[in-house]
Design goal:
Elements lengths: L4 E6 L4 H12 L4 E8 L7 E4 L2 E4 L1 E2 L10 E4 L3 H13 L3 E4 L28 E3 L3 H17 L1 E10 L6 H15 L31 H14 L5 E8 L6 E9 L5 H9 L4 E3 L11 H4 L5 E8 L6 E8 L3 H17 L8
Parallel strand pairs: 1-2, 1-6, 2-5, 6-7, 7-8, 9-10, 12-13
Antiparallel strand pairs: 3-4, 9-11, 11-14, 13-14
Length: 342
């Protein structure tokens, strides 16, 4: 019989945690025991895993005893404190927060791009930022062919990327505005309904936001190429789920639109949706709930040598978070790496 694992989800009640539960079940991940962890507020809550009731427990230092694999999605502070505790208890951690992503001894993995980086894990593996994941999945086959030298990206990020409370805020504010009431922002600094906020995560001294900086640093680490120049503008838009990105890629060598389409059509995890004449292009309402990263509007940038523009859309809760984490877990199982090296 193939091996089964005791798996914990930290943040099991959250937007990403819920997606993790359903994706583990959908993909038939070999789970012997499922452990749901969250705050004291959720302790005792009945959650569902594969039709079975699971009682949510409060995360505590002894939560990882006998657990083989933990998927963390409970914020950076929780990961900073509890990922080392889990690892020291012999549990391999796949962390969704930004806490460990840029540490030298922590692989930052997108299975379609740098699967072999799981081989050198030391107990903690980081899942990249949602906007970065969908971009590098598309960049990889193009980079292998024509070497990307520069990326200019603008994101249009859904509120689900902020978590369950932000989804409620968009829905509530939309109702309030339509009813002629003035919404009171709570999760975001300004009204998000019928608005766009060029502000995701904290501002840094150089005028960029941390989200923009994450896209720059994480892209280089995942692609294993520090020479790729990346500049980003990250924007929160009133979309419930599914991040979109307008991406301009510049290459060292010529790459035609036709060849780019061909490479992308053959790339794992990518779906080309590019028939503008028939009004067919990727959209978040269609990408939501799906596993692929969708790319369309592929066209030549006539203002630069060897450059293409494109539009990339993916479900940020799935490929941008939970699905990518489960795919990393699958890689660990395939390669017999569900163990903390001593
Ligand atoms: N949403 C995305 O698209 C996305 C993408 C990539 C990465 N991430 C990352 O994933 C993490 C969670 O995001 P989310 O969108 O799922 O947020 P969320 O909907 O707000 O859920 C947060 C989850 O974390 C739990 N939690 C919070 N503080 C905790 C603590 N001190 N101890 C134990 N559990 C704690 C919450 O439990 P309670 O319900 O008990 O409060 C809840 O289950 C964040 O680190 C985020 O940056 C999110």
């Amino acid at each position: 019989m193939s091996k089964e694992y005791r798996v914990a989800v930290v943040g099991a009640t959250g937007a990403v945690g819920r997606a993790m539960r359903s994706i583990l079940a959908e993909r038939d991940f070999p789970v012997k025991k499922f452990v749901a962890l969250a705050t004291a507020k959720s302790a005792g809550m009945q959650l569902e895993y594969r039709g079975q009731e699971v009682i949510c427990q409060e995360l505590a230092p002894n939560s990882f005893k006998g657990v083989d694999l933990a998927l963390f999605s409970a914020g950076g502070g929780t990961s900073l404190k509890f990922a080392p505790i889990a690892r020291d208890a012999g549990c391999v951690v796949i962390d969704n927060s930004s806490a460990w992503r840029m540490e030298g001894d922590v692989p930052l993995v997108v299975p379609e791009v740098n699967p072999d980086d799981v081989n050198w894990h030391k107990g903690i593996i980081a899942n990249p930022n949602c906007s970065t994941i969908q971009m590098v999945v598309v960049m990889k086959p193009l980079h292998d062919e024509a070497k990307i030298t520069r990326v200019v990206v603008s994101t249009y990020q859904a509120v689900s990327g902020t978590g369950a409370k932000a989804i409620n805020e968009l829905v509530q504010q939309t109702g309030q505005v339509l009813a002629g009431e003035a919404p009171q922002p709570s999760v975001y600094p300004h009204q998000i309904a019928f608005n766009c906020l060029p502000h995701i995560d904290a501002f840094l001294d150089d005028g960029y936001t941390k989200e923009e900086q994450k896209m720059v640093n994480e892209t280089k680490k995942i692609m294993g190429d520090d020479s790729i120049a990346v500049t980003a503008t990250c924007v929160r838009v009133p979309v419930q789920n599914g991040h979109s990105e307008a991406v301009n890629l510049q290459f060292a060598r010529p790459l035609s639109v036709e060849r780019a389409r061909e490479l992308l059509a053959a790339a794992p995890g990518v779906r080309v949706v590019d028939d503008p004449e028939n009004k067919i292009y990727p959209m978040p309402i269609e990408a939501s709930g799906r596993d692929d990263t969708f790319v369309g509007r592929i066209r030549r940038d006539s203002t630069a040598d060897n450059a293409l523009n494109m539009w990339i859309v993916a479900d940020n809760l799935r490929k941008g978070a939970a699905l990518n984490a489960v795919q990393i877990a699958e890689l660990l199982v395939e390669r017999a790496l569900v163990r903390v090296p001593r």
